[in-house]
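User: Sequence in, structure out. Go.
Assistant: Echoing your sequence, followed by the structure tokens.
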Amino acid sequence: MRQVLAGIAHRAFQSCKSTLAIALAVTAVATAPVQANSKYAAIVIDANTGKTLFSSNADEARYPASLTKMMTLYLTFEALKSGKIDKTTKVKFSKNAANEPPTKLGVKAGGSVTVETAIYSLVTKSANDSATALAELLGGSEVEFARMMTTKARQLGMTGTIFRNAHGLPNPAQRSTARDMATLGLALRENYPQYYAYFSTRSFQYGKQRLANHNRLLGRIKGVDGIKTGYTRASGFNLVSSVSDGNRRIVAVVMGGQTAKSRDNHMAALIKTHLPKASNKRGGGNVVAKASNETTKSPIRALANAILPGKKAPKPEPRLEEEVVTAATADNVASVDVTEEGSAEAEVVVEEQAYAEPIPARMADIDPIKTASVPKAGWSIQVASSPSEVEARTFLTTTNRKAGNILASASPYTTTFDKGGVTYYRARFGGFDSKNGAQNACNALKKKKIDCYAVQ
């Protein structure tokens, strides 16, 4: 009898251990980015009350990458509501806009699209050329539009944000915080509900191409209805999500993810943990103001941090068109993060020779989409296969840059397969309607000495 009771007690103990292990594993998913990544920042805000439900490095300066386009869209919605433009207004693409690096629509200089097409291209493909074209339409120039963006940020209480362009490609002066991005997400939904549905667009037809949304949580996590993804090498993988469950609503931000998958998984864990804690009753007053006023730092200090970042702030690389930075002219740059290239060193001291030549494989503003986001009946082009996910994404970026307008309407993504116990990542461009379309694009790439083949 003692042996039987002992056996039951042992099994019960083991069961408790398993339950505890599962709980700890869930906690680890939510907290791992905090411990492992200096670029990491996150926040969850109750959209009904403005209360902060979760916060980590939320007021530290970060690079927003394509989250920048949220403000570009905010000012576009403002212009629509005021009657300054309408959805059919033509957005002309200047040489400056047409020359933006991918991802982009690929409209030639002098060409145009409607405002609504430009909006769709920003919320799905994150088109850099469309962002610049909208900026020039609404502000007269990209520089003036950036001033408008920063002014609007201040009006919304985003005290730690400075904008320098409309798309989010690297600029050392362009900064924001997770709290500010959450505030902007709240403002978009609260102030422009009539246009907010654009953010839940899964894909849209542009010419003969169907462009898929980069946001992989749409359709995967119940209640997610937007808002925006973002990636540059300096920022890491960013995501702002709006989620609703009945009367409960939250806006969550994750910045500095090491991979798109880890960012998405962490966002899913934050949503699962904190959405049930949100209020199901709408509070009075301006929720955006409440959220922005919860910062743990004074507005002056937050603004100072945005202009003069600390040593832990990630260092951006110059844009393709910009003059190569030298050690003599770099603005407070003392080190460069090389861990994304697989180096064992956390950082290395920069010497003048290190900036003598431009870095060839700059990561453009691309957040690759997964296979499921590409139309099943469509064709794709495969350009590389690698056991390194970072290397596969880098190949997508460099191929996009070299291809010019050949792949302007294609969507980059990675898909995995296992061989010999090793996971490999295929680097592909999808969205082609026919085999001939994919093969023709591939033949054009081969003329640029880019190996590829068409797959379905």
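User: And one key feature?
Assistant: The radius of gyration is 23 Å.
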